[in-house]
Amino acid sequence: MTEVIKIAYLYEDLMNTYGDSGDVKILSFLLKEQGYDTQVDNISLGMEFNAFDYDFLFWGGGQDFEQSVVATDLQRHRQTIQNYIEADKPMLCICGGYQFLGKYYETSGGQTIQGLDILPFHTVYKADSRMIGDTEYKTEWGTVRAFENHSGRTYFDDKSVLKPFGEMIEGYGNNPDDKQEGMRYKNVIGSYSHGPILKNENVARAIADRIVAAHKLRMTATVK
Ligand code: GLN
After folding, report:
1. Residue 124: how many CB atoms within 10 A of its CB?
2. Which GO terms describe its biological process (predicted)?
3. 60 C-beta closer than 6 A to ligand 1
4. Complete DSSP assignment for 163-204
């Protein structure tokens, strides 16, 4: 029987901008190549969720309004997501989903949306520019080309803990000052890249391999 890899897509119905759900489709395709079926669960408002039931967590981008709705539901899942991340399990968070792992996001409307405060960074708004356009940056897996559209500017509070995902060649990434894109912590990648980002095959294959490894570990743990 074909083994099933389980993916949790956090608030899929509310957080999916500029092709982000394509990331999950690309991963499903690559996992199929490796002989696995995938089950993708939309974890939405009010639903029960145990991150350890899954081999991969995905979180897409969102408009400010949808983010403010998600923020009313989110804190219930803080502990399970934090434990999952600390256990070195794989996760990809895009734009609004990335912002939610940090302390807070100040919107252009003057609202402060509380994040999960799992990782030491914060996101602010500054009048005068929304960061929109094509991006290109260097990563461990080669040059990534994508698209960004955000008003939040993300700044790391503890650079000894967080590493950038990439070094900018074109576009803004985290903010207009640091010339860096996204964040890495353990097996988590946060990024402002839509498009979807995983059309960049090297990154997609690297993440797919991590998901398979996480799946094998989860299966061994379950079988015992
Ligand atoms: N609403 C957030 C911002 O504008 C995130 C945008 C997004 O996820 N595309 O910064």
Report:
1. 15
2. cell wall organization; cobalamin biosynthetic process; peptidoglycan biosynthetic process; regulation of cell shape
3. no
4. B-SEEEEES-TT-TTT-EE-EEETTEEEE--BTTGGGSHHHH
| 194 carries an active-site annotation | yes
Question: Could you tell me if the CB of 96 is within 6 A of ligand 1?
Answer: yes
Is residue 77 among the annotated active site residues? Answer: no
Cis amide bond preceding 120, omega within 30: no
Rounded to the nearest 5°, which phi and psi values hold at 12? -55, -40
Structure tokens at 23: 């990331």
Q: Is 46 helix (H, G, I), strand (E, B) or coil?
A: coil
Closest C-alpha among 96, 183, 200, 99 to residue 146: 200
The span from the CA of 43 to the CA of 1, in Å, is 26
Q: Ligand 1, atom 3: nearest CA belongs to which residue?
A: 150
**Structure-token pair, residue 116:** 């999960």
Interatomic CA distance for residues 45 and 30, integer angstroms: 29
User: Which atom of ligand 1 is found nearest the CA of 18?
Assistant: 9
Give the residue ranges of the annotated binding site for substrate. 130
Does residue 150 have its Cβ closer than 6 Å to ligand 1? yes
Residue of 92, 108, 150, 175 to test ligand 1 pocket, by largest number of atoms within 8 Å of CB: 150
| CATH number of the domain where residue 85 is located | 3.40.50.880
Owning domain of residue 129: 4-223
**What percentage of the chain carries pLDDT values higher than 90?**
96
Amino acid at 151: S
Number of domains in the chain: 1
